[in-house]
């Protein structure tokens, strides 16, 4: 009976958390649609998410493209299909690896920072002070981060796509002795608009998820420094799981037959 009771408690706890996140999401979205806005705060968040995340996302993308080209060559050479390497690299980077890896990198860097900053403000009662000063915490803390995540992740992923394909080009041309012009022609001819568009849509959704989880866990942190640490970990873990889950759902939406 204790086993059944534990399952019941876990199920109720899951639905309770899901309900709180849904309520937080709806409230945040309603504030996104109504002024006032804080452009300077939004610009700061856009620089944090987009500009300062560019080095880690770029390094991840170029090494991913290089490894993908090497691994594809190892596999395709077994049945003389090396010419398909440019096609595999561009489709894999634009559809899947670019948005997913960029999302996970930004979740680790930005999601944790958001949860830590807002969580510290919560446990030191700075969030309550905002309310006392007639400043809505949702508009001041949550909305700029949500809009910045929603807009900057697609730009980051677009850059990551270019860098990732360039990484595959470098390995293929300078290590595997591919013809440079043929490699580029195959890449451009094989790539379709939907490959890039689906990746950018995923990036926008991932950016929203990262900002939402960072704000939610920071907003509801309790218990001093230990609570802020737990909120930071929960923000990264929940954002990573949701990114992988929504990646499947969006892929199903775009490419299911």
Q: What report would you give on this structure?
A:
The protein is mostly helical. The termini are far apart. The protein is 86% helix and 0% strand. The relative contact order is 0.16. It is built from nine helices and no strands.
Let me know the average pLDDT.
Answer: 89
Counting helices, strands and paired strands, the structural category is mainly alpha
Shape assignment: elongated
Low-confidence stretches: none
Secondary structure tally: strands: 0
Largest sheet: none
- Ends distance: 45 Å
In percent, how helical is the residue content? over 70%
Q: How big a fraction of the residues is strand? A: under 5%
DSSP helical segment count: 9
Q: Could you spell the SSE succession in H and E letters? A: HHHHHHHHH
- Radius of gyration using CA atoms only: 21 Å
> What's the assembly state of these chains?
single chain
Q: How would the blueprint of this fold be written?
A:
Blueprint: H1 2-32, H2 39-51, H3 54-76, H4 85-123, H5 126-132, H6 137-174, H7 180-190, H8 193-219, H9 224-255
Helix pairs in contact: 1-6, 2-6, 3-4, 3-6, 4-6, 4-7, 4-8, 4-9, 6-8, 8-9
Spell out the key features of this protein.
257 residues, mainly alpha, 9 helices, 0% strand, elongated
How would you summarize this macromolecular structure in one to three sentences?
With 257 residues, the chain is an all-alpha fold. The protein is 86% helix and 0% strand.
């Amino acid at each position: 009976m204790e086993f059944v009771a534990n399952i019941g408690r876990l199920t109720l706890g899951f639905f309770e958390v899901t309900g709180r996140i849904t309520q937080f999401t709806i409230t945040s979205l309603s504030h996104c649609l109504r002024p006032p806005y804080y452009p300077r705060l939004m610009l700061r968040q856009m620089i944090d998410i987009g500009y300062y995340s560019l080095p880690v996302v770029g390094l991840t993308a170029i090494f991913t493209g290089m490894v993908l080209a090497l691994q594809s060559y190892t596999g395709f050479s077994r049945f003389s299909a090396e010419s398909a390497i440019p096609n595999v690299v561009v489709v894999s980077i634009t559809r899947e690896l670019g948005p997913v890896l960029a999302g996970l990198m930004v979740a680790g860097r930005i999601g944790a920072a958001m949860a830590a900053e807002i969580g510290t403000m919560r446990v030191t009662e700075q969030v309550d002070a905002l309310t006392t000063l007639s400043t809505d915490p949702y508009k001041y803390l949550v909305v700029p981060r949500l809009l910045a995540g929603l807009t900057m992740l697609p730009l980051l992923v677009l850059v990551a796509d270019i860098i990732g394909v360039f990484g595959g080009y470098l390995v293929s041309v300078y290590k595997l002795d591919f013809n440079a012009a043929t490699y580029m022609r195959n890449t451009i001819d094989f790539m379709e608009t939907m490959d890039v568009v689906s990746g950018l849509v995923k990036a926008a959704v991932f950016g929203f998820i990262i900002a939402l989880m960072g704000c939610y866990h920071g907003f509801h942190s309790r218990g001093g420094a230990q609570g802020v640490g737990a909120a930071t970990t929960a923000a990264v873990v929940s954002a990573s799981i949701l990114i992988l889950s929504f990646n499947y759902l969006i892929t199903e939406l775009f490419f299911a037959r």
